[in-house]
Amino acid sequence: MGLLDLITPALRAPADCVIRVDDQEIAELYPFLREVTAECSRDEASTARLVFETQRDEHGRWTVQDRGILTPWKQIVIEAAFGQHTEELFRGFIRVILADYPNESGAATVTVECQDASLALDREHVRHAWGIDAPTTDGEIVTEIASRHNLTLATKPGSGLSNLTLYQNSTDIRFLRARAAANGYELYFRAGDMYFGPMQLDAHPQPTIMVYAGLDTNCLSLSVTSDGHLPNKVAFDLSPAAGTEITRKEIGPDLVSLGTEPADAGGEGLKDFTWLLSREGSFDEDELTARAQGRVNEFALRVRANGELDGTLYGHVLLPGLPVAVDGPGDWLGGVYYVDRVSHRFDLDGYRQQIRLLRNAYGDNLD
Questions:
Q1: What are the residues whose beta carbons fall under 8 Å from the beta carbon of 60, sequence distance 6 or more?
Q2: How confident is residue 281, by pLDDT bands cut at 50, 70 and 90?
Q3: pTM exceeding 0.85
Q4: Is the pLDDT confidence value at 11 over 60?
Q5: pLDDT (tens digit, 9 = 90+) per residue, 294-313?
Q6: Strand order across the 233-238 sheet
Q7: 161-180: pLDDT as tens digits
């Protein structure tokens, strides 16, 4: 079955790709659609790419680019339809239109590149002093910026650092990403919402990924790596308030365990495995502590899995920034993982999801 068969409205099957531009399904362009990909992450802008074949009619008009449907800054939503229900995998704006006219006219294509809602926050350079009248928090700053762009927050934003007096001299998205880094937070946009806060390892796991499970198998391949050469702690030096003695502060991970046995660097009898954080332009102890906490938490996710899901068999859109259960890799490597990144692909071969998962523990903790 080809992509055209999968996305013909009257013949929809599981793992169908549904595309809406300005709230209108682009059904008239489906016959020319050849590939849809989307890159979704918990700490970077999500992007999507659509590739169409295009043909010129007897009047010199092209079937895709001359319809006026696909133009920059139109809103676009991409969904995966599984039988009677759909799940959104991308929402944002059309950013780039590339019409390619090679030597053979039959090979002409139109490529549409898209970016999530963060694109709209990168249009205006803002100079603003935060906390001048009264010191503020990162949570209050994020709430005000979200309101300014008519964005809703997925959850109450993390409070972040407090007692702040900051000067913004950048676009809103660049400023927000800098504040997320300062707090060791994640920042992403999904389904019209913005998330600004810590990793959500304690959230309810997404539907189970099944490895070597007979007819229930939905994972086509999985490769798991455990890297022992990642530090157990992150440290930073504080300048003395008086005298010349430098104080060193060490931070360990504070994440919820995703298994039954912590995955640390081990090395009994060896020297402590500690990574030294540079000041990164900050001399504030609270900010250095938050940056160190975020860095060591990332290091703690030393068990990493890469794999591929059959989207039809899985029956769901796997979301970054949330846990997922993985059943089948065994007593040591099976259990709950954290979704770092998902690459979606609809083409003539169906629907696939390339996944990257993280874990800070060993041991199968599934019921």
A1: none
A2: low
A3: yes
A4: no
A5: 999 999 999 999 999 999 99
A6: 247-251, 233-238, 274-276
A7: 999 999 999 999 999 999 99
Strand partners, 335: 326
Q: Are 366 and 260 in contact (CB under 8 A)?
A: no
Q: What are the residues whose beta carbons fall under 8 Å from the beta carbon of 150, sequence distance 6 or more?
A: none
Whether 324 and 205 have beta carbons less than 8 Å apart is answered as: yes
pLDDT band (50, 70, 90) for residue 282: low
Partners of residue 129 on adjacent β-strands: 167
What is the separation of C-alpha 278 from the centre of its chain, rounded to a whole number of angstroms? 26
Q: Which amino acid is at 237?
A: D
Of 118, 188, 105, 195, the closest CA to residue 149 belongs to: 118
| CB-based contacts of 271, cutoff 8 Å, min separation 6 | none
| 356-366 pLDDT per residue, tens | 999 999 999 99
Give the pLDDT band of residue 243 (cuts 50, 70, 90). low
Give the pLDDT score at 155: 84
C-alpha 47 chain-centroid distance:
10
The H-assigned helical ranges of the chain are 3-7, 138-148, 172-183, 285-300, 311-314
Q: Cα 38 to chain center, whole Å?
A: 11
Amino acid code (one letter) for 333: L
Q: Please name the residues in contact with 188: beta carbons below 8 A apart, sequence gap of 6 or more.
A: 41, 42, 43, 44, 46, 116, 194, 195, 320, 321
Contact (CB, 8 A) for 34 and 65: no
75: which strand partners?
Answer: 93
Q: Which tokens sit at 221? A: 């391949």
Residue recorded with tokens 């963060």: 118
Measure the CA–CA gap between 189 and 113, rounded to whole angstroms.
Answer: 17
HSE of 158 in the Cβ direction (CA atoms, 13 Å)?
A: 19
Angle at 177 between CA 175 and CA 180, to 5 degrees: 110
What number of other Cβ atoms are within 10 A of residue 126's Cβ? Answer: 14
CA distances from 289 to 138, 251, 257 (A): 15, 7, 21
Altogether, the residues listed in the chain come to a count of: 367
